[in-house]
Design goal:
The complex is a heterodimer of chains A (363) and B (507).
Chain A: H1 5-10, H2 13-32, H3 37-49, H4 52-77, H5 85-102, H6 108-137, H7 141-161, H8 197-214, H9 216-226, H10 228-233, H11 238-265, H12 276-286, H13 291-315, H14 320-334, H15 336-354
Helix pairs in contact in A: 2-14, 3-4, 3-13, 4-8, 4-11, 4-12, 4-13, 5-6, 5-7, 5-11, 5-12, 6-7, 6-11, 8-9, 8-13, 9-11, 12-13, 13-14
Chain B: E1 4-15, E2 18-29, E3 33-38, H1 44-51, E4 59-64, E5 67-69, H2 74-80, E6 82-85, H3 97-102, H4 114-127, H5 143-156, E7 161-165, H6 173-188, E8 192-197, H7 200-206, E9 209-214, E10 217-223, H8 230-238, E11 256-266, E12 272-282, E13 286-290, H9 297-304, E14 312-317, E15 320-321, H10 327-332, E16 335-338, H11 342-346, H12 353-357, E17 368-369, E18 372-373, H13 375-388, H14 405-417, E19 423-427, H15 435-450, E20 454-459, H16 462-468, E21 471-476, E22 479-485, H17 491-498
Parallel strand pairs in B: 3-8, 3-9, 6-7, 7-8, 13-20, 13-21, 16-19, 19-20
Antiparallel strand pairs in B: 1-2, 1-4, 4-5, 9-10, 11-12, 11-14, 14-15, 17-18, 21-22
Helix pairs in contact in B: 4-5, 14-15
Chain lengths: 363, 507
Amino acid sequence: MGINVKKGLRSVGFPLLSILVALFLGGIILALMGYDVGAAYASQFKGAFGDANAIGETMVQMVPLIFCALSYAVAYRCGLINLGAEGQLYIGAILGALVGARVQGLPPAAHILLCLVAGFVGGGLMGCLVGALKTRFGASELITTIMLNYIAMEFVAWCVNNVPFKDLTPGAAPRMPAVLASARLPIILPGTRLHLGIVLAVVGIAGYYFFMWRTTRGYEMRVIGMNQNAGRYSGMNIRANSVLAMTIAGGYAGLAGVTQIIGLQFFLTEGFSNNFGFSGIAVALLGSCHPVGIGVSAILFGALNAGGNKMQLLASVPAASIYMIQGMIILFAISRELFLWFGKGGGRVLALARRPAKDGGGA
Amino acid sequence: MTECILRMRQITKRFGEVIANSEVNLDVEKGEAHALLGENGAGKSTLMNCLYGMYDSYEGEIYFDGKLERVSDPKRAIALGIGMVHQHFMLIPVLTVVENVVLGLKDNKELLDLRGAADKFERLGKKYNMVIDPWARVETLSVGQQQRVEILKALYRDARLLILDEPTAVLTPGEIEGLFEMIAALKNEGRTVIFISHKLNEIMRVCDRCTVLRQGRVEATVRVDEVRDREHLAALMVGREVELQTVKAPCQPGEERLVVEHLAALNDLGLPAVRDMSFAIRGGEILGICGVDGNGQSEMVQCLTGLRRTTGGRILIGGKDATGYSVRQILREGLSHIPEDRHKFGMIGAMNIEENFILVSYREELYSRRGLLNWRWIGKHSASLVDSYNVKTPTAKEEAKNLSGGNQQKMVVARELDRGPKLLIAVHPSRGLDIGATKYIQSQIIKQRDNGAAVMMVSTELDELMELSDRILVMYEGENMGVLTQGEATREKLGALMAGIRARPGA
């Protein structure tokens, strides 16, 4: 087998440390701001795991986070950095919302499937464009993905305000028409908002694993991601793989958008994404782009998102402080070198630096 | 007994599950040249890197000048008076020699006294008969000169113990002589040298004592002048008596497998690198490509393997015009390619051995079906490859980067030869390998020849070329200087051609 599950689990240890440190430092900051830290974290936890409804909310949040994390991970494995999940998500959502609202007379299963395909294609086209720009013109995907985010968001703004896409219902807010009942994902935990999307997201993780570690195409991508020259040496087509990887990455982000529309919102509005495209990067980074890691870190980020609202409600701590904690988790997680440094030689180096330039350590 | 400048006691160093050194004891006497002999992966470099503080942890004790020292980083090692010249030089190419020399010195002031440093450096160079212009940029120096800079840099820091990690691997014969003279001079001054090598004749020439490492353990420490013969040392190193002469059946050439006509190509800078190259290789024959590094060999190999565009001429493989073929097309014609730089092209360090084994063949039958990799079969096949090619590793699931250089090369060679090539292009197949591995890989290459493969072997080692090749083609500035048969080739003739001096007609 090509992937090591034990290694994946072991790699969870370090992210766990960064989470604890972030929660600890976040607690200090909240305390300094005069909030009751105990109450804040208790309500946070309650909001994420307290009852069936809370758990359902956490999992609802996990759906787009997982898809966006997979989007980042697929590109990353092929040596590309996809910062465009947010834009790809929106375009996928637009296509999905169109299919969901305009295609009539299909049985639910077929309609849902068609919406998902539309979402994947929408995001995939955005990704494909990035891949093409990179391989044709050498445009860095770092830049094009970020720029395309803006274009996608402006396009959403235009869609919800202009014919032929806007909802013509009298008195409706700027939005696209509601998706039909036949296109909506069923609720899988009665009494909550938890929809089938979480199952799809788990299938998405399994698909990511299967593709990357079991297929020759996935193998090519991983080789290219780790050593492009070795890919060339063994006759792999770097360009085709880059374009395909960006397309799949975009497709995953598109699925994040469309599941959000047909599972939860039913209307496409401006700014509905709540930054999932960017949080997804964090989820992928914290999970080291490993299938298990992504699943585990999505639980954490889902819980933080879901619990944040409860915290605001019960402990009157602004939900925005959750972003602060999320930010710190990422900082610590990606600066593991810093920990190593402190752990090993850092203290000594600091001591040396503080000493006068002339160091009497000679023999 | 003479005074020991260095005593290492019970040194153990692990990398993950790989044990590189196991309870090694080493005594080095003051003023001697002490050789560390061992196969690749025997733990020579690891042991010295422990001493030089390159790793932050090791088990065991190091006594320097009789005092127990914890050498936790190179700064400490340098302060103690230990200098090390690594296989890969630690110089900054865009800086001048003198800037590199003062780099990181403790007594640097806010304003660098480069002139003073340059004077001191020049005096040092004169003393050891190794004059280097201190104001030259390092990137303009030859590899041999860069090595001298590294040595002088260590002496500038007043190293009393100098570690040389396979110093002769990158030198020309003339430069090797210079290095040996320098080692003698250092010894005369009472400095101590640790000389890492797996070249027996060099050790016999310059060293007083020799410690043999095998599989991370000390096999023996012997006085060089008491050694019976080379075979005995080699046997200590590999653990069995070795055959130093390669046996090769007479060449039985078949049809022309590779024909190159008037090939031309540019290098990365856009300058002509291969000019009007024409030659042919038959099945069942080894054509050696001889030449000083950088005379177009790399570019030519890249053309033949589809990695570089040609600007003129034709390449025929098995009678088919393969000019302009992609890598994949050429692989389909039965090419195996042992690349020049295994780290750059031949392997993926972060992947495990199994994943490296399938790098070229993953699309083929048994490896995969309908785009799905058959890991079950790959696992079994990898285990047998590891076994039959003697790749030293706990399992085939070990990441390639955890293997020693020699074992990485064996992994690459195993992968390429397992394909049963019709055309084998091997570039420096045994560069940096110890005797055991070299002989093994050479015998495998000969086996491919005897199975009817056309073999092109690019090497800078004359011994290897003269021993293995049926014919030797000498390249100079991208041109074919002439082809000698194995019988005709002598060091002198090859040397002249390598230097660009054509044999006079009738001479």
